Amino acid sequence: MNLFQETKFLMNKYNITANKNYGQNFLVDENVVSGIVQNAEVSKNDLVIEIGPGLGTLTSYLLENAGKVICIELDTHMLKILNDRFSLYTNFELINDDVLKVNLKELISQNSEFENVKVVANLPYYITTPIIMKLLEDKLNLTSITVMVQKEVAERLTEAPGSKNTGSITYSINYYTNPKTVIDVPKESFIPSPKVDSSVIKLDILQEPKIKVLDEELFFKVIKCAFMQKRKTLINSLSNSGITTKELLEKILTEMKLELRVRAEQLTLEQFGMISDKLKE
Q1: What does the mean pLDDT of the chain come to?
Q2: 131-143 pLDDT tens trace
Q3: How far lies 238's CA from each of 139, 154, 215, 218, 224, in Å?
Q4: Which of 68, 83, 128, 273 has the fewest CB neighbours in a 10 Å radius?
Q5: Averaged over 12-36, what is the pLDDT?
Q6: Is the pLDDT at 16 greater than 90, yes or no?
Q7: Which pLDDT value is given to residue 17?
Q8: Beta-bridge partner residues of 119
Q9: Closest CA to 143 of 121, 116, 120, 122
Q10: Rounded Cα gap, residues 240 and 244, in angstroms
Q11: Average pLDDT of 190-209?
């Protein structure tokens, strides 16, 4: 039975349809599933946290390769399927909760015997950004995050800061990780097929952030405010947000030899760091 047939069988057996509220599309491409596990470099030394396992398509591959897999699933309709499929696996644990509400730091500390902790998931697209930011901002003891996301989002997440296709999250991702796209996934790889193509990205977590800043909270606040009015110049965006005055910003940009009409997406990570440090001084 191939993955498409298996998925249809499970959907019929348990009378399951993809729940749009949870952004469900079931992956049926075996090459993609095995590619996710391979690129995540899952081994028996790893604790893997899978977010939104759904029918357990990716879970079955992870269980064969990981030391332990903890699945966090919000949809109660999926719990019986997952327990029926994997309850005999000694390295399987299922948590019925919203991942944004789960104390992941505590969960990881309870499984401290594992050498590495990796997040591997086909994320619900409607909540991709909050999940990734939680994983990074909580400063969890993670080795890597390998997740499927909407292709357009993947391009923004993995873009180099200072390029046109960036957003505030681009800078956060590059502050905490080395990001890259590892697999492009056409919409036909799912049932039902979504309206957009997808990509699998891998975020290798840095032991230390890429740059050092005097005030991390201020650093991210500057970036966030700069991109809230992306079409405006940096000076207008930041002064309108009340972070500082136009006069001080003009002085800072002049000292940094930057054009006064520079926009947020034109700045590097290091330049945002310098601006926030000068505002802190």
Answers
A1: 94
A2: 999 999 999 999 9
A3: 27, 27, 17, 12, 9
A4: 83
A5: 88
A6: no
A7: 85
A8: 49, 145
A9: 116
A10: 9
A11: 93
Residue 68, strand partner residues: 47
Separation of CA 234 from chain center: 27
Question: Is the whole-model pTM more than 0.85?
Answer: yes
From first CA to last CA, the distance across the chain in angstroms is: 64
Span 225-253, pLDDT tens digits? 999 877 789 999 999 988 889 999 999 99
Tokens (6 digits) for 179: 């990001």
| Distances in whole angstroms, Cα of residue 268 to Cα of each of 86, 187, 210, 236 | 46, 33, 12, 18
Q: Which two tokens stand for residue 211?
A: 């740059």
Token digits of residue 221: 């606040």
- State how far the alpha carbon of 94 is from the alpha carbons of 6, 52, 157, in Å: 21, 11, 29
Q: What mean pLDDT comes out for the span 96-121? A: 97
What per-residue confidence (pLDDT) applies to 216?
A: 96
Rounded to an integer, the average pLDDT of 8-32 is: 87
